[in-house]
Amino acid sequence: MGDEFNEIVVKVGSYRPNVDYRQSKKFQGVKLTRLETNEGANSRNDRGINYSLYKRPENRGYFVLVEAWSCWEGESNHDDLFAVATDQELVEKYSALANEAGIDSPEDLDAE
After folding, report:
1. Across the strands, what pairs with 64?
2. Nearest to 98 by CA among 62, 58, 68
3. How far apart are CA 40 and CA 47, in angstroms?
């Protein structure tokens, strides 16, 4: 496929302005896509979740970085990293992100 895998460093954990409890996580991968969502109260775009999809080498699946953020004072932001083993699992758990990356479920391909 020609993917060039590099060392990726992401931070996971909670943080607020002036307080950062996140820890760095390193892995080999290539970033496939990013999906940004806004979930603001009254459509003010003051909260959201951003998803980044990374492919792991040697057919070992994917990592999904989930960044939940808020612009509200006193609310923490939280970043998590999740391992996803297969295309099917990616489609089931993160369908919009899989769609953004052009990844179909093997079951969907069999139905065609």
Report:
1. 53, 82
2. 62
3. 5
The rounded radius of gyration (Å) of the Cα atoms in the chain is 16
pTM of the model: 0.85
Residue with tokens 């999809």: 53
**Sequence-ordered strand ranges (E) for the chain:** 6-16, 19-20, 23-38, 47-55, 62-70, 77-84
Residue 100 near residue 36 (C-beta atoms within 8 A): no
Per-residue model confidence as pLDDT tens for the chain (112 residues): 457 899 999 999 999 888 899 999 999 999 999 999 887 655 567 889 999 999 999 999 999 999 999 888 888 999 999 999 999 999 999 999 999 999 986 654 444 4
